[in-house]
Inverse folding.
């Protein structure tokens, strides 16, 4: 009662400021007192619906919702939309500015158009992965005349006709993603470029467009981000169109464009000194000296991803010398990465926050120690299959990189329990991948559970020495976990599963090929893990009908089994 009376004295403005400071855990804070509950209800702007029957009640409770996410609502269809819009007052639609309908495959063009027309302030729509969507759905989307942001990734039926309707009806578009819309050609992109002159972001990845599309895109004077991953028909001729076009371009991604060469990429760099991000993953066999030297003119360049390219110590030295502002460097699967090269690049790029060295197998503790000492602000380090890394290098990492949030040590055979003890000093860790680290046990996992309480994702795939004791420690210390992979951890039993069932935030759980778990453990998970959406039980031979009945009855939010 005392705490409640104290909060009663605070003004609504102060309560809102407190809520904003703890934005990541508003759900817990609103249970503190009536004042917080009231303010949280009136200030909430976004909502994600799991079951359609609760939508109207929630929208009446949260009266200022601007963003509505129905992507995990499997029952949404034309009929449900019709009922929602005809049931009582529909004033809630008047405030909606963002609709997330990703994977809402049950919703057709009729329901989509009803929903779009009911939301006159709509500025952003996501219909990605609605694979059956075509030109009729595109026509429905074109009714959103105020639309600024549209994601149509993998809408496989959309053709140039549907894109033309969107281009004409939604001329205020600033962001458009068309990834995997395979029926769109140069014709549709040309019309889009003529009608949607406000575009700042455009993704045409995996489209069968040619360099002619880049001639059209070059006329977009406000374009800042252009992504064309896997456009195998585009060559250097197309990139040269961009050299004198798109004056505000800040980011370009030509990954997996097999006909692009260093010469073409150099032409883009030469025409855009304001470039901040360059992605050229798996498209260049090697980096030319002119291309690397051209980077020195890009004073604002902060992200380079050149995965799969052949590099040398000399190339990495030039990057370290010319690109002092780098915050992210991707060298995954690059041939020729050595300790010396990494030491040279990180010595010059001390502001790095993300470094991807996946499958750079020559890297040893010497390089890891230099990374730790040179990059104290490192937030993400990927070392998958760097099996020469041991606890010696990870000791320095745990000592110096206290801001580390993501660490990938998948298939690093040198990682053991001592290494996990050192890593556990990185208390800000959110994502940790330890798959195929066969030398770690419950002892090492207990160190992680004790100190890394912010973990939300943990991968222990084929960590065969992990058992129930480690999972008990995990359930106690890491209660914010949402994703957990325990596939092939064959020491685990129902006792471990009962521990896991205490992870109330868990949404993704992989338990493939664990021979000793039964329906008893699965029932405990089904009852307590209310947010569970994805569950992998392949080859768990002791789970019988009673386990699946429990999942059907208790796991109401399960989307994939």
């Amino acid at each position: 009662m005392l705490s409640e009376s104290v909060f009663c004295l605070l003004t609504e403005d102060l309560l809102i400021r407190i809520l904003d400071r703890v934005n990541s855990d508003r759900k817990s804070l609103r249970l503190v007192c009536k004042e917080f509950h009231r303010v949280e209800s009136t200030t909430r702007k976004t909502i994600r619906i799991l079951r359609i029957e609760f939508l109207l009640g929630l929208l009446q409770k949260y009266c200022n919702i601007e963003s509505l996410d129905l992507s995990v609502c499997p029952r949404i269809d034309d009929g449900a939309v019709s009922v929602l819009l005809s049931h009582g007052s529909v004033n809630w639609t008047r405030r909606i500015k963002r609709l997330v309908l990703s994977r809402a495959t049950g919703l057709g063009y009729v329901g989509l158009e009803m929903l779009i027309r009911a939301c006159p302030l709509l500025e952003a729509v996501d219909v990605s992965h609605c694979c059956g969507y075509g030109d009729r759905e595109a026509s429905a989307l074109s009714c959103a005349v105020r639309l600024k942001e549209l994601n149509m990734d993998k809408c496989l039926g959309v053709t140039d006709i549907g894109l033309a309707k969107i281009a004409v009806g939604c001329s205020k578009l600033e962001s458009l993603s068309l990834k995997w819309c395979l029926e769109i050609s140069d014709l549709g992109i040309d019309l889009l470029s003529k009608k949607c002159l406000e575009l700042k972001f455009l993704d045409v990845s995996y489209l069968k467009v040619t360099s002619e599309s880049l001639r059209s895109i070059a006329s977009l004077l406000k374009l800042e981000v252009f992504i064309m991953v896997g456009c195998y028909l585009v060559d250097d001729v197309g990139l040269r169109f961009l050299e004198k076009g798109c004056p505000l371009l800040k980011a370009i991604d030509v990954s997996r464009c097999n006909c692009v060469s260093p010469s073409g990429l150099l032409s883009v760099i030469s025409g855009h000194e304001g470039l901040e991000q360059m992605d050229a993953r798996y498209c260049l066999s090697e980096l030319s000296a002119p291309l690397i030297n051209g980077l020195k003119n890009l004073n604002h360049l902060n992200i380079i991803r050149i995965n799969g390219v052949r590099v040398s110590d000399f190339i990495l030295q030039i990057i370290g010398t010319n690109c002092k502002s780098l915050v992210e460097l991707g060298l995954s699967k690059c041939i020729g990465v050595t300790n010396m090269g990494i030491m040279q690049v990180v010595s010059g790029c001390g502001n790095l926050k993300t470094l991807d060295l996946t499958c750079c197998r020559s890297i040893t503790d010497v390089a890891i120690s230099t990374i730790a000492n040179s990059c104290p602000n490192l937030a993400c380090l990927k070392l998958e299959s760097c099996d020469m890394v041991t606890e010696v290098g990870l000791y320095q990492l745990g000592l110096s990189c206290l801001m580390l949030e993501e660490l990938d040590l998948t298939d690093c055979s040198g990682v053991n329990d001592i290494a996990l003890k050192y890593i556990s000093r990185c208390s800000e860790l959110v994502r940790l991948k330890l798959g195929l680290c066969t030398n770690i046990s419950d002892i090492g996992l207990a160190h992680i559970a004790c100190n890394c309480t912010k973990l939300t994702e943990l991968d222990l795939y084929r960590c065969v020495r992990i058992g129930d004791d480690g999972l008990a420690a995990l359930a106690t210390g890491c209660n914010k976990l949402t994703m957990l992979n325990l596939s092939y951890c064959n020491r685990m039993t129902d006792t471990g599963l009962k521990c896991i069932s205490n992870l109330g935030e868990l949404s993704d759980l992989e338990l493939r090929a664990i021979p000793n778990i039964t329906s008893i453990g699965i029932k405990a998970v089904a009852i307590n893990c209310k947010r569970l959406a994805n569950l992998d039980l392949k080859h768990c031979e002791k789970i019988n009908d009673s386990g699946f009945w429990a999942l059907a009855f208790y796991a109401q939010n399960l989307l994939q089994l």
In short: The chain has 24 helices and 20 strands. The mean pLDDT is 92. The longest strand covers residues 46-48.
